[in-house]
Amino acid sequence: MRWFGYMIHRFDKLATELPEPAAPNANAAAAVQELMGGKFGEMSTIMNYTFQSFNFRARTKFRPFYDLVTNIAAEEYSHIELVAAAINLLLTGTTTRADRNAASPIKTKASKTNRIRGSGATKNGADPAPLVDAMDMRNTYHFIASGQQCLPIDSMGNFWTGQNVFCSGNLKLDLLHNFFLECGARGNKMRVYEMTDDPTARALCGFLLVRGGVHIVAYAKALEKLTGADVGRILPIPDVNNKKFPEAAKHEEKGLHTIMFRWSPEDYRELDKIWNGPHPEDGQELVVEDDIPEGAPWPEFTEEPQLVSPGSIDPEMIHWYSEALAK
Ligand code: MN3
After folding, report:
1. What's the confidence (pLDDT) of residue 139?
2. For the chain, first and last CA: distance in Å?
């Protein structure tokens, strides 16, 4: 098998480790959706840079710029994955676990309308509603359209749209857009951070502030190399340094804000023509690393039987699987 001929090389790892939520938190998950499917979310960054890379003209002449946009597009995949994992961690356990297929009848709290005050019992023997808590959650798609999982939507439940992709074909304009997109994304991350003190959401925002910060500096440097303008002088946008956020500062202490990873074993060799010199905010030297980060394991997401998620499995298949494992 020849690994390096494939277009996409995927690893079953997350970009960074996410802690368990302090408690299940569906409304924090709804807020974090902005970082997935919002106008400035990770779906927008990946699709903007992907389309710009597909459409890039005169690649030989503008090789460092092509390499930069294309390489950053690859990193954005890991950001979509990480946002998904954070949302799914926050949603796990947000409704009462109950299995309608279980031998004994499901025992959960009664729905609000049928509840007998202070008893947990229902009037007239009404069937309990294990998803009743979802009635008060900001995003009911999480419980109706998915099994308490992320969707390609923003924090208000609007589905992501290709209208968020800007791809003018003019390099200066596209780079200026990308710089603006990353600054807008940064503003959104900061505000989601300020909305919740949940450790999962804040770890996500902290990491994305650092890696998104790399992309802000990358597009600033690209505009500088293309035009001579000193774009780095207007940073940070918005006007708070990443080091003010503890979950971002811990990554910057290890220099994560100075590294451009090369997301290919063979290609994108000219990143260092743009990614070089001092970081515009703290003056540390920028470096291209030829290896991608090791990553962290995906969390194991518990079954949610009240949503029949993931549902049952053929007993013979379980038997076959346990036999195969025993060998
Ligand atoms: Mn990103």
Report:
1. 98
2. 26
